[in-house]
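Rotation project, supervised by the postdoc (A.L.). Task for the rotation student: set up a whole-complex structure prediction and record inputs and outputs verbatim in this book. Inputs entered:
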Amino acid sequence: MAASHATIAIDAMSGDHGLRVTIPAALQALKTWSDITLVLVGREAEILEALAEHNETPNERLRVVHADQVVEMDDLPSKALRQKRQSSMRVALNLVKDDQADACVSAGNTGALMAMSKFVLKTLPGIERPAICTAMPTMKGHVHMLDLGANVGVDGENLLQFALMGSVLVSQLDDNPAPRVGLLNIGEEEIKGPERIRHAHRLLLQTPLNYIGYVEGDDIFKGDTDVVVCDGFDGNIALKASEGVAKMISFHLKKAFGRSLLTKLAGMVALPVLRHFQQTIDPRRYNGASLLGLRKIVIKSHGGADEFAYFHAIGQARLEVQKAIPQMISEQLAQLMATLEQQDTVHESEQQAV
Amino acid sequence: MAASHATIAIDAMSGDHGLRVTIPAALQALKTWSDITLVLVGREAEILEALAEHNETPNERLRVVHADQVVEMDDLPSKALRQKRQSSMRVALNLVKDDQADACVSAGNTGALMAMSKFVLKTLPGIERPAICTAMPTMKGHVHMLDLGANVGVDGENLLQFALMGSVLVSQLDDNPAPRVGLLNIGEEEIKGPERIRHAHRLLLQTPLNYIGYVEGDDIFKGDTDVVVCDGFDGNIALKASEGVAKMISFHLKKAFGRSLLTKLAGMVALPVLRHFQQTIDPRRYNGASLLGLRKIVIKSHGGADEFAYFHAIGQARLEVQKAIPQMISEQLAQLMATLEQQDTVHESEQQAV
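Outputs recorded:
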């Protein structure tokens, strides 16, 4: 495999829509990027049939690997891990483990994907907990946030690791040499959140990361932070609340334009503008969350992703392969730990000198 | 005081804009509701001057009480409590304590207002921690959420009390005999959030409250829940993230319509529709958070509230006086506790019988 070529294993069966979404998205990705090869993993007969509907057959850049089982959206992670060893998700991850693919994309259930990925691919040396990271639109561009639900009840050192991983991802993907890292907290002066967050704050101040301090919920979308770091519980709440508000606003906007003939006409006049607006904040363009901290690349697509959104998740996998994200995280983590240890040593000898 | 008449103490000096907002909002409130009396608390000379600008003087329904100090937005709660005993916030709360007013409205800093309110007015018997509760728009109407930042690190019983307080508030304000109560959590099947939430879940299942189970961040805005209960940290994150997204969307919407002459024209055609839409989700209409669990009524306005928003906070105070919210909470809490104890007794005797 050339450095610039990416072979991506697609868990073709998972997600709310399975093959109906993954097949056309995969074909679109192959058309768009000449530097990728896709391996569709799932029930071979069904995949071949779905390909035939698009007048396609397997070829050099589009391989099919059979897997009999499917991880369902409501399968418990522990059950999926024990009982779904022949699933498309598991087989796709095995391809990555065995270096037959550089990355895996799945729209399957998050808990099962994280559990299987940890088990099959293992975490990077020194990483205690992998985290889920995604980009979201802001007033000025986009922001990456992690963790979004893989870890509930992390400690300060976990948050430090999340900060490093997010920072490496953004520096590579956005060619940003010093991503601004913020720690999600609340604003009450004397409370300032749980001890784990204050601990992470103290740790981050000692790092060479471009740490800008605490950020609040509304700061996420202002565009003045590149990486927002938080516990998985808080991140999940913030992400889903944000999605909920966006849907609610879009619902009321459509309703306002649909009230009468007059408002419908106004809507027709405004349609190109509304479409441009919608593209700017289209969550589908941000589909494809990274499972950071693993030895290999795994991208989680929204379960309900459509063809356009799933296509973007494949694009995310391609970018992360090109940028060798896990290797970069591993190197930067080793450097960071060395720096922190050195500081501790200096600190200790200073204390002894006093 | 007749039962239907409300005397409301206005902390006229606090908030980002002080008298510039509180005075016109107060005058508008007096014009709108003939069943209220307002007591403006703050520096008398400045208040009289501000009133004169509106050609107004104190009268039977508009009294002025002097207070020399102002609690600043960045005053630490503990400092405000010790050193600002002559502040407009503190004097306004004292009026409520001494039954010279039925409620207090303040746009001052949340931590200081909560600390002073607890100290001056005390909590209701049996309530461990008061909570901050506000309404927010949804797809179908509105939802109340609590706690929004007063309490970080609550336990299951605190969450149970929040559920009861929110339920009482909504049942009274919305004439809703059985508000649907949801517990904010994340969706991962095997994690299901911290133990405090699972404990609250078990407790809530035993109550006569209309408890509908766990809700996720995006459920808040669907309109299928009337009361969302959470820890103050989670609530604050969810609320602020939601505010941030709404501002970001509004920013991009304006930008899309402002791009060119053509889009500006489209915007003019769509203006009445956009205005109707904006009114539906206007956060100013929802201004006025309740500090629930105190013996008296305290309403917290957004610090940055404008005249229209502050007017709504006064309206919220008026409604809560009319509905006697603290008394209702106190009664319902006593009933709930009796029910839970009875169940425990039955449960114990059943166990003994076995």
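Student's summary: The first strand of chain B starts at residue 6 and ends at 11.
Supervisor addendum: Chain B has two domains: 1-122+294-323, 133-282.
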